[in-house]
Amino acid sequence: MTYKLIEKETGSKIIDEWCKGQDNESYEFTSENTGSFIFQDGEIFIGVINETYSECNVEEFDTLEKAVAWINGEDEAEEMEMETLENKFNQEDISYILEMVGIQGDIINEGYEAIDGDCDLHEYGEFVTSVRYSDTVMKAWKDEDSPYHYWSQLFSDNQLMKSAVNEIVEKIKGGRK
Question: What is the pTM of this model?
Fold first, then answer.
């Protein structure tokens, strides 16, 4: 099943609007609130499946992999056949992936969709990591006159992140030709 990694505020809004809509029977499905989503709240990963008027399923997990397994309908996370993020990325990479998605999730997701990403967790992680190490980002980070003192400041620059995502999208699309 496909899902989107979203920001905490967006996830909370989906849940809150569904609950309020059920109370007064005014809930409307839109492309923004329909489907399966995962967001992070502190150390917790929250999975949301919102596809019917009768229920909006919400579960909390201690790992992203368990949330993905739940969305995919797998009963036990231990039975997952996919390798975990930890086998592919180190903890620092995972922290940066989650930070970037938390700050610029919409921009990153648009870029990932532009390359026809198939919601494979590892492919998504590689895409986000490629954005982090793009020429655009690295040039801004290494510039002595740069206003960025922390990665989070750099990740918060919408224009810079859009340029970095576009750079990676173009590289990927160019490599497919």
Answer: 0.52
